[in-house]
Amino acid sequence: MSHSYKDLMATTAFSVLEQLPKIDDMSALLTGERVKGAQVSMAAGLTYNYAAKPVDGAHLGALQQVADEMELVAQYRSLLGGAEMNGGEKRKVLHHLTRGQLGATVNFNGRDLRHFYLEQQQRVAQFCQRVHSGEVRGASGKLFQHVCQVGIGGSDLGPRALYLALTGYANSRGLQRMRASFISNVDPDDAEQVLSSCDLETTLFILVSKSGTTQETLTNVALVRRALVQQGLDVAKHLVAVTSATSPLADNDEYLESFFIDDFVGGRYSATSAVGATVLSLTFGPTIFNEIIAGAHAQDRLALEADIHKNASLLDALLGVYERNCLGYAATAILPYSQALSRFPAHLQQLDMESNGKRVNRRGDVIDYATGPLVFGEPGTNGQHSFYQLLHQGSDIVPLQFIGFKHAQGSLDIDIDGSSSQEKLNANLVAQIVAFATGQGNEDPNKVFLGQRPASLIYGSVLTPQVLGALLAHFENKVMFQGFLWNINSFDQEGVQLGKLLTKQVLSKKINNEVLREYAQLMDV
Amino acid sequence: MSHSYKDLMATTAFSVLEQLPKIDDMSALLTGERVKGAQVSMAAGLTYNYAAKPVDGAHLGALQQVADEMELVAQYRSLLGGAEMNGGEKRKVLHHLTRGQLGATVNFNGRDLRHFYLEQQQRVAQFCQRVHSGEVRGASGKLFQHVCQVGIGGSDLGPRALYLALTGYANSRGLQRMRASFISNVDPDDAEQVLSSCDLETTLFILVSKSGTTQETLTNVALVRRALVQQGLDVAKHLVAVTSATSPLADNDEYLESFFIDDFVGGRYSATSAVGATVLSLTFGPTIFNEIIAGAHAQDRLALEADIHKNASLLDALLGVYERNCLGYAATAILPYSQALSRFPAHLQQLDMESNGKRVNRRGDVIDYATGPLVFGEPGTNGQHSFYQLLHQGSDIVPLQFIGFKHAQGSLDIDIDGSSSQEKLNANLVAQIVAFATGQGNEDPNKVFLGQRPASLIYGSVLTPQVLGALLAHFENKVMFQGFLWNINSFDQEGVQLGKLLTKQVLSKKINNEVLREYAQLMDV
Predict the structure, then answer these.
(1) pLDDT band at A495 (very low <50, low <70, confident <90, very high)
(2) In chain B, count of helices (H) and strands (E)?
(3) C-beta atoms of B424 and A375 within 8 A
């Protein structure tokens, strides 16, 4: 890499930040005025509120200095412009380009890559039109009513989270075209459960593997093939592939159609590429998919702002680094008060932990400061009845990321005891933020709440496709900025290789390690 | 409480343990012999393997001393005998008694409580027989084919995890009697999604609330009622209640039937009481539910062993405390290599974090040592493609709890490249344990794996109902022993109260807190 980026700890601004007094009484900090003022506008009508974060003006000033000194937005611009920000793999990082053009044209091998991504999106849209109109049908002549995506990791978590997030929205507006299900795990019980609930004659399968060599996915597609053949159905009429143009799966007669991604869109960043486009356009129609894209693109544009008071993703990233590296908090909880976002925390878990769970900087030096936190979460109010006890009264402080919407997606609601379900949901949401931040004293030590648990809140009117796109892009960009801050490569995943290598040894019965051999014997493998 | 229990840090044995040298090279410790030897038999043919835990004979000796000095098994015996081990709430803790009698008879108000739990289980079984035979039918005369449980927290997570865990087992053996779905969140979009996929005429709803006052559940039941009424169906013919005998829901004409629990079974420990019995007996039949119970009871019995080499739950608890309080690890990942256990980590998250996320001991003193860890997880191999990067190469060490089975539940499998899906699954499992423990060097720092990531493995032949029961009881008992070790009350949940209180203020529009008022305004509530 020609440009040598600074480590966080080597910056002047970070040492200033570190030396500022910590906020040891959030009750004093958190006023009504602050709740109204500590906000940043996001795309699609969303707002990022950081009132319950343990920072005052001095901290914010220092965080701005960190952002400036580390040239975080300039690094983002380089990335947009096609610099090889995935240094280890010597690759560009272009998932933003799947949503629209924000910098200069990016060419590769003489090809305008924005054109390439757009072309794939349009090919998907045309294919959907043919499926929805009944021009393309199952082998027995029936209309396709069901899509089943076979993929794992980034080819599963993001698309699945987005699908679940919009099912209620689309259903209640009569916009849902097809149902979707997902097979991911190599455990054959996963495929069995899903296939047993599918009517194969009316099911279109999407095989998603960028490399075309993912063990789990190829194995599961073999199970799908066998099931189709057993029912006398022509496999090639029930299967489309999403893969890279150079993979063994590309332009293969065994598929109805192939849609392409390239090496510049990482799996965990691929929800807005053909990986997400295919299943989401089939289920909800290309218009809704375009709205997701538009929301993400608008949020990507806001991430260009150098001022942290105008750039929620940048500010969120900086606050997270302050909590991780100055306050020593090891985890972050994602708490959407929206059942539609039930698997969004699982997607963010991959996005964040696979991107920033690293211990070597971009120069190849081992670093001695903490990087990516542990990320987990469940929707509220369910989480309240599960792990919130520890968040309130446990030994460690876990910063909290709340997400909420004023209105439900659907129209099923009911007034009980003077309030609707949606009001109850949001009353719980705001009550929790305040309880976590300010706590409560009591004579009985068991009933004492120390407070001092920081939270931010992203809120909007209703979870529409645009809002969902903006939310997705916000977290992608937050994770990107944090990677820049820690000076790590957020776009590779060397940490998954050793397991693959040892798995191959076991399966090929060429184990050169006595310990592995004994473990394999325990499991009869 | 008459008996004054010691704090962990006040024991002689813990100071001995703390001063033992740490294992700083797991590669040297972990031999083939150790993999075969470091095992404890569990119930239902399961085995607990702790070979990849950073302890040698000296540590194990000291852990045994800790167990003895703190009288952990004696405390368990007291609990079984009906002592008020839920001190804050002055209650007995009797979930073990829902599985069988292990100590002397436990009476309350002149009543033998084993008899009470068994009676409820039998009432559930008789009711199921009437539903399955068609004697009890929906209001329009149709057979019930679908159960929908409405509950939250312990009335949802455990039963849901167990239902999902056995669906494949029951399906592939032709034993599934009814399908189940679950409504938990007060978000009206949750109920809308579930209800829109139900045929109400053939759906039996189970309302589960111990207190009979759970806001979320009562609100959701109101939505269910309205939906039934809108379809002209008699609500009382479609609704059963599981509640305490003293709750407003008990023996109410508005329900087809009520089944009872009492105050001595906490929500997160209620899966083997009527809370789990009703939905699991309806879906899989009372025989399968009895097998779950039998597995749990057998594991409860093993937890009476004073010798850590014969008591996996005790040893697991002690190893966890060693990792938490001597090695400083803040989290534990639950990694079942079984898609059927997809929501088992979510159940354990509640079980563990709600039980042991406390900072006050049983004498009411604030304690200064770490208690319950953060618990999270997803099934393998899915997790490998998500957060394992951080587990392998991130800044913090997270101990890992693997779970695996030699055989799949179903029969759908396929050989590809010389191995079945199940073999691939388990090859991945064992490869990961070894990769995490021993790591790998490399010239490129990005490809270095430090290893030293501890793991235990619980394994068995196949995930049957008995195995599932044993697994459930193992973790319940582990959490209980850890609570004894930290000298905290694992059976209350004071940490959920403040949020409830503030929620009420918001909903009643009687907010006496300017900060809360402003947050409420942001959300239009």
Answers:
(1) very high
(2) 18, 15
(3) no
CB–CB contact A503 B219 (8 Å) = no
Average pLDDT value for residue range A58-66? 98
Q: Does A167 touch chain B (CB under 8 A)?
A: yes
Edge-to-edge strand list for the sheet holding A203-208: A179-183, A146-150, A203-208, A239-244, A257-261
pLDDT value at residue A249? 83
* Cα B428 to Cα A525: distance, rounded to the nearest angstrom: 10
Q: How many CB atoms lie within 10 A of CB A359?
A: 24
Cα distances (angstroms) measured from residue B213 to each of A119, A145, B157, B207, B388: 56, 42, 18, 11, 41
**Domain edges within chain A:** 112-292, 493-525
State the helix-helix crossing angle for B465-486 and B312-321, rounded to 10 degrees: 40
Strands B203-208, B146-150: pairing is parallel
- β-bridge pairing B146-150 and A39-41: unpaired
Above 60 in pLDDT, residue B2? Answer: no
Q: How far apart are CA A64 and CA A57, in angstroms?
A: 10
Q: What is the mean pLDDT of residues B52-60?
A: 98
Q: Do A152 and B385 touch (CB under 8 A)?
A: yes
Chain A, residues 29-48, CB within 8 A of chain B, namely 30-32, 34-36, 47
The catalytically annotated residue of B33, B90, B443, B500 is B500
Q: Is B354 a catalytic residue?
A: yes
- Sheet arrangement for strand B146-150: B179-183, B146-150, B203-208, B239-244, B257-261
| Strand bridging mode A455-460 / A400-405 | parallel
The partner residue sitting opposite A434, judged by closest CB among B172, B419, B519, is B519
Reported ipTM: 0.97
Contact A398/B at CB under 8 A: yes
Is there a contact between B373 and B352 (Cβ–Cβ < 8 Å)?
Answer: yes
**What pLDDT, on a 0 to 100 scale, did the predictor assign at position A89?**
85
Q: What is the mean pLDDT of residues A395-414?
A: 95
B415-416/B419-420 β-pairing: antiparallel
Contact A340, A166 (CB under 8 A): yes
A with B: how many residue pairs have Cβ under 8 Å apart?
491
At residue A400, does pLDDT exceed 80? yes
Cis peptide before B217 (omega within 30 of 0): no
A265-278 pLDDT, tens digit per residue, is 999 999 999 999 99
Of the residues B86, B186, B360, the best mutation for testing chain A's interface (the one with the most A CB atoms within 10 Å of its CB) is: B186
**B103-292 adopts what CATH topology?**
Rossmann fold (3.40.50)
Kindly report, residue by residue over A321-377, the tens digit of the pLDDT. Answer: 999 999 999 999 999 999 999 999 999 999 999 999 999 999 999 999 999 999 999
| B110–A contact, CB cutoff 8 A | no
Q: Which two tokens mark B122?
A: 């039998």
| Chain B (345-374) residues lying within 8 Å, Cβ to Cβ, of chain A | 346, 349-350, 353-354, 356-360, 364-366, 369-372, 374
Residue B1 clears pLDDT 80, i.e. is over it: no
pLDDT band at B211 (very low <50, low <70, confident <90, very high): confident
Q: How far apart are CA B301 and CA B111, in angstroms?
A: 24
When pLDDT is averaged across residues B268-288 and rounded to a whole number, the result is 98
Indicate yes or no: CB of B354 within 8 angstroms of CB of A386. Answer: yes
Q: How many C-alpha atoms does B173 have within 13 Å on its Cβ side?
A: 13
The answer on pLDDT for A9 being more than 70 is: yes
Task: Using only the alpha carbons of chain B, give its radius of gyration.
Answer: 24
CB contact under 8 A, A520 and B366: no
Catalytically annotated residue among B22, B385, B407, B504: B385
pLDDT tens per residue across span A10-43:
999 999 999 999 999 999 999 999 999 999 999 9
A112-292: CATH number: 3.40.50.10490
